[in-house]
Amino acid sequence: MHPKNNQFSALSHTVLSEKPRLSRSLYTTLTATVTAVLLTLPNLVSAQVCNCLPNSTGPIFGDPTPFAGGMCDLGTIGTNESVAYAVSGDGRTVVGFINAGGGTLRRSTVWTPENGPQFLDTLITGTIPNPAVNSNGRARGVNGDGSIIVGNELINATTPRPVRWVNGVVEDLGTLNGFAGTESGNAFAVTPDGSTIVGWSVGLNQVGAVRARRTFRWVEGSTSGSPLNPQMQDIGTVTTDETERVWARNLSNDGTTVVGYYDFSTGDDRGYRWVEGGNFGLAHNPEIQDLGTLRTDQGGFNQAWDVNSNGTIVAGYAENDAGLNRAYRWVEGAQNGFSANPEMFDLGTLRSDQNGQARAYGISSNGNVVVGFAQNDDGNFQAFRWLRNGSDGPAANPEMQSLGTLRTDQRGTSFAWGVSDDGSTVVGESDTDDGFRRAFIWRSVLQDLENLIKSFQPLANDGELAAANQQFAIGHLIDQTLLAEKETSRMRLGGWLANTADTRSDDIGEQTNAIGTLTYGRGLDGKTTLGATVSISATDLGRNNFDPSTGYGASLWAEYSETGLARSGWQAGAAIGWGQVSSEITRGRDLANVTEVEGEADLRTWGARATAGYGFQNETWLVTPSASIYYFDTKRDSYAESGADFLGRYDSFSVGRSMASLEISAERSVSEKGILELTLGLEHDFDEDRVTLNGQSDVPGQENFSIESNLDRRNTRAFVRSTYSYHLDENSILSAVFRVGQAAYGSHAQMIGGLRFEWKF
């Protein structure tokens, strides 16, 4: 997300020193030659174009990146070793250092798509520092678009200073003690807009001969910081010990939350979170809080290394009861984490027994992706990418995916130090086949940004289609009534199939509904029947992003006929029903270079109907005109996607619809046991809501969205229906029903066929 430091350098350098090397004499000769060449280069050294980075802003279709879900070597300048600490928010610019000669000479480096690796300007004019001197020149962090880089550079042979590079030009930020040449410091992180920087500096307080290192927050244009450096603020200490040393490692997007660690009185580092204006800390400094550990007694070690965009989720590593360092994800207000520290979650390791060590160093803007390194079953530390609800890791820890190494056998050691805002791009260092460590970039599946943005509109459209289909099922449910004679019971078992062909011009897939109903009615006085109906349904919406599971419904109803089963005279009825279905919801369907992501939510609909009509005999036909009023209300629950880089979180929605239906039906006997009924009808929606999709996402340009369905809806629809009923005996009837009519959505007719079996007892 922002800058990452190699505080685990002891392990990193130990691993490096254990790698196979050239003979010392040959190595010395080669490094001396390389150094001589480097001394002739200007401070900004160009190299070949870096094919490991996308040659565009953000992921695009046709990106020539020569890897897919794997590591790519970022390259070096003249030597064999390099480290990448951070990547810009857009995943396009990488910063770190290159070992630019013998010994410990390191040059701050930026990798860009156009120029590959380039050395950054130093604070020392003339030639670069003597290779025998440890320069500690390192670029640590970079802002959102790569225009501002922060890190440290020497101002003399031994003193590092926090710096920033703005469009390639270096600037000394000074220290909390001003700009005196003997004071040191380091910058680690910068906000996406470049206005706020954090790091450490020698503090203003001095006890005896001890001068403490303190966290600084540098705010461009500020006048309220240190008297000697008004843009640089000391955020204070966690305890009252003035010799306490405090380091910053990262900050939130708005710069108001800082995370890092401090020296505790026991000698252990302790992770902290500082929030401007906060009140959760100690009396002397309420803005800063200790994050605790993974030990039951809350003692031991912790370092906080990164924080998400809004400052509520922290990544780092802490000691557990076994004395091991474990990667953690701390979530403000959580209650289901470690028992003694419920806001802190142990992320596990890459080992099948989930023992061993792990450390987290980077986190995505939404907090759902964490990167670092963990032990595997070979005993090696390897870079990991932990994805909330992910499934690419080992069986024992599917959320933690090993990123492998730059070795062809995928063995050895690698460390992940930084991650892009969206979590799709990871940078760090890795062993290579020749025994050196090299800066790497790892990227998940490339996605087309334009199509990612397009993937949200179909969710609004398909949500409206899913709601309409459930309303159809509930409408059918509350239409299932019957008449029974006085003090007798009737039951009806029905099966129905409805189909509407697809309309590709509107991206509406074929819609199929299968509905089964069981209806029971009890006659009260020969005119009025009370009853209930239950239903089970299955819906297939074709290319729709909604994939409903089996739906269930139930209704209560009453029917009245002035003449009972003769059904002449006044007719009336009323029903109320309810149904629910769970649905898997997929975003990204049929879009090129977009990873499909899924969520799950329930759809619930309740509906009501009131009907009035009048039946009269016209020669051999019983003619019944009638009118009905329907009302439906459908709610889709809120839900969140999981398991990919670009995720969405969706608010619930509720849509209502009021409909009037006019029918005229005519029936007559066509045989001794057979009755034919023909019906003409017209439906009209006189008040219907459109689905509006509201929510948030990680997709650039769609952070907050409100998208209304743009489907064309036919509000007035005609239909015809025919029913043939055959009396098997005096107590049972078998009926076949067929209806064809205009559909609410799409250009094709809706066709419905069904069979009913009814019996009395």
Q: Features of this protein?
A:
761 residues; mainly beta; twelve-stranded antiparallel β-barrel; disordered N terminus
Question: What is the compact description of this entry?
Answer:
The protein is mainly β and 761 residues long. The chain has four helices and 45 strands. Strands 29-30-31-33-34-35-36-39-40-43-44-45 form a twelve-stranded antiparallel barrel.
Q: Which helices and strands, and how do they pair?
A:
Blueprint: H1 9-17, H2 24-39, E1 71-73, E2 82-87, E3 94-99, E4 106-112, E5 116-119, E6 138-142, E7 148-154, E8 160-166, E9 169-172, E10 185-190, E11 196-207, E12 210-219, E13 232-234, E14 246-251, E15 257-263, E16 269-275, E17 288-290, E18 302-307, E19 313-319, E20 325-331, E21 344-346, E22 358-363, E23 369-375, E24 381-387, E25 400-402, E26 414-419, E27 425-431, E28 437-443, H3 449-454, H4 457-479, E29 489-500, E30 511-523, E31 528-540, E32 546-548, E33 551-561, E34 569-587, E35 597-618, E36 621-636, E37 639-640, E38 648-650, E39 653-669, E40 674-688, E41 692-697, E42 704-708, E43 716-729, E44 732-742, E45 749-760
Antiparallel strand pairs: 1-28, 2-3, 3-4, 4-5, 6-7, 7-8, 8-9, 10-11, 11-12, 12-13, 14-15, 15-16, 16-17, 18-19, 19-20, 20-21, 22-23, 23-24, 24-25, 26-27, 27-28, 29-30, 29-45, 30-31, 31-33, 32-34, 33-34, 34-35, 35-36, 36-39, 37-38, 38-41, 39-40, 40-43, 41-42, 43-44, 44-45
Instruction: Based on the coordinates given, report the CATH architecture of the domain at 452-760.
Output: Beta Barrel
Net shape: elongated
CATH class of the domain at 452-760 reads Mainly Beta
> Got a strand count?
45
CATH fold group of the domain at 452-760: Lipocalin
Number of separate helices? 4
Main β-sheet: number of strands, strand sense, barrel status?
12 strands, antiparallel, barrel
